[in-house]
Amino acid sequence: MALTFDSKEIPSALFGRIFRPMALVEFKHQTKDIWIPISMIVDTGADYSILPRSFATLLGIDLAVDCIEHRTLGIGGSEKIFLCRCQIVRLGKYRRTVPLGFLDRETGPTLLGRHECLETFRVIFGEHKTRFVNPRVRKRVAH
């Protein structure tokens, strides 16, 4: 069964309105046995998932200890990011361990990226909804 999220309608000066694909993603806190829900843009153009800097504290992550400093390139140019290699996330009943980057600023979008996350699902966009279908394990055929 697919996990389905409604898109968020956004006013647009150019197009009147657009629909942004969204998903509610739960992040495992680093030191407490709790899950933190975060609404994220489903971004097939993002190599990995990214959050603004303040989310690190919310998730119990120390940027200086738990992350490596890295530079990333995007449509806005180059930017410093703090990259954690292994963050446990949950989409509905599905768990994934994903790389997670934190921007070196408080503003910015929450992006759910491809590596170890979107690429592990069949993601379907349509009718102002985003559907995640967990891939089936393929059976090996003997030759």
Structure description:
There is one protein chain. With 143 residues, the protein is mostly beta strands. The protein has one domain: Cathepsin D, subunit A, domain 1, CATH 2.40.70.10. It is built from two helices and twelve strands; from the N terminus they run ββββββααββββββ. A hairpin with a 2-residue loop joins β8 (77-91) and β9.
Low-confidence stretches: none
Percent of sequence in beta strands? over 45%
CATH class: Mainly Beta
Q: By helix and strand content, what is the structural category? A: mainly beta
What name does CATH use for the topology?
Cathepsin D, subunit A, domain 1
- The CATH fourth-level homologous superfamily: Acid Proteases
Average pLDDT: 92
List the helices and strands in order.
EEEEEEHHEEEEEE
SS element count, helices: 2
Please give the alpha-carbon distance between the first and last residues. Answer: 31 Å
* Portion in helices: under 10%
**Could you say how many structural domains there are in total?**
1
Overall geometry comes to globular
Number of strands: 12
Which architecture per CATH? Beta Barrel
Q: Any idea what the radius of gyration is?
A: 16 Å
Summarize the model shown.
This protein has 143 residues and is mainly beta. The chain has helices at residues 54-58, 63-66; strands at 3-6, 8-12, 16-20, 22-28, 35-42, 49-51, 68-74, 77-91, 94-103, 111-112, 122-126, 129-133. Helices cover 6% and strands 53% of the residues.
